[in-house]
TrEMBL record:
It holds the Pfam family Glycos_transf_2. Keywords: Glycosyltransferase, Transferase. Belongs to the glycosyltransferase 2 family. InterPro entries: Glyco_trans_2-like, Nucleotide-diphossugar_trans, RhaTrfase. This is Rhamnosyltransferase. GO terms for molecular function: glycosyltransferase activity. NCBIfam families: rhamnosyltran.
Length: 297
């Protein structure tokens, strides 16, 4: 399996990024860092070149999807068969990629039509392992991976540390750049699912991952806290995605209820409440009007 790792950076912690690149480099056949206009882009460049990786400098924040698509284009150009997507803070344990690759091959041999496979990441803020998500009619189920030894199907997996065959990307298409950030991976998985491809989580490939800078409680669950502008993108993209024909009905209902939960939670328990309310209100308007792309100042 010929794998190109694509790490997207935006104002990263350089020491942490060094650990990310050090962890992934021995596990793949190629590594590229796509920088989205970081203030410390020169530091990122020096670190990347010192790691014998390729550096792509977009010079402005084009969004996560656009940066991932740049990596995808490079993978096609250089004849790679798979890409491994990485966030700037995702440190892989040894043999993570081989675990994903072996499970991907086995799944393709057993049933074909595999969109992507990712690790069962451990979320550092909430101190919880991710679960698989599966729908049945109007019901949405969260499936625990505790004790599992074989991959578990999930309606979506997060992009970070996900392994994707280029043949699937050629048939399904790349990542939607007008979503900019938030739910880009979910939208792609739903689109792939509608085309007959399923996504999986490998419970034996565990990766530490951090969502946001902290959490707030939403009922029995904890929700990641990001900077306020991310509330805009999540609400906007969720409402847009809820209206797409390939989004399962249970997920449409989930997005609607979660937007209401965001409004209540972030304007009650998070910081900068008024700013978050203004941004989410605009996100609602833009999502319903299908006004996508980067948020204008």
């Amino acid at each position: 399996m010929h794998v190109l790792a694509v790490a997207v950076t935006y104002n990263p912690d350089i020491d942490l990024l060094a650990r990310v690149l050090e962890s992934v480099a021995p596990q793949v056949q190629g590594l590229v860092v796509v920088d989205n206009g970081s203030a410390n882009a020169e530091d990122v460049r020096r670190l990347t070149l010192a790691s014998s990786a390729q550096f792509i400098d977009i010079q402005h924040n084009s969004g996560i999807a656009a940066a991932q698509n740049r990596g995808l284009a490079l993978a096609k150009e250089r004849g790679f068969g798979h890409i491994l997507l990485l966030d700037q803070d995702t440190i892989l344990a040894p043999k993570t990629v081989s675990d994903l690759a072996e499970n991907l091959k086995a799944l393709e041999a057993e049933q074909g039509g595999v969109a992507a496979i990712g690790p069962a990441y451990y979320e550092l803020n909430s101190q919880q392992q991710t679960r698989a998500y599966q729908t049945n009619g109007l019901r949405l189920y969260r499936i625990s991976l505790e004790g599992e030894k074989h991959p578990v199907a999930s309606d979506f997996i997060i992009a970070s540390a996900s392994l994707i065959p280029l043949t699937v990307l050629e048939k399904v298409g790349g990542f939607r750049e007008d979503l900019f950030i938030d739910l880009v991976d979910v939208e792609w998985c739903f689109r792939a699912r509608a085309a007959g491809y399923r996504s999986f989580l490998s419970p034996t490939a565990v990766v530490d991952h951090r969502l946001g800078s902290g959490t707030v409680r939403l009922g029995p669950r904890r929700v990641a806290v990001h900077v306020p502008v991310r509330n805009y993108y999540w609400v906007r993209n969720a409402l847009w995605l809820a209206r797409q024909p390939y989004t399962p009905l249970a997920w449409r209902l989930y997005f609607l209820s979660r937007c209401l939960g965001f409004l209540g939670t972030y304007t009650t328990f998070a910081d900068r409440k008024a700013q978050r309310l203004r941004l989410m209100t605009r996100g609602i308007r833009d999502g319903l009007a299908s006004r996508l792309g980067p948020l204008d100042p």
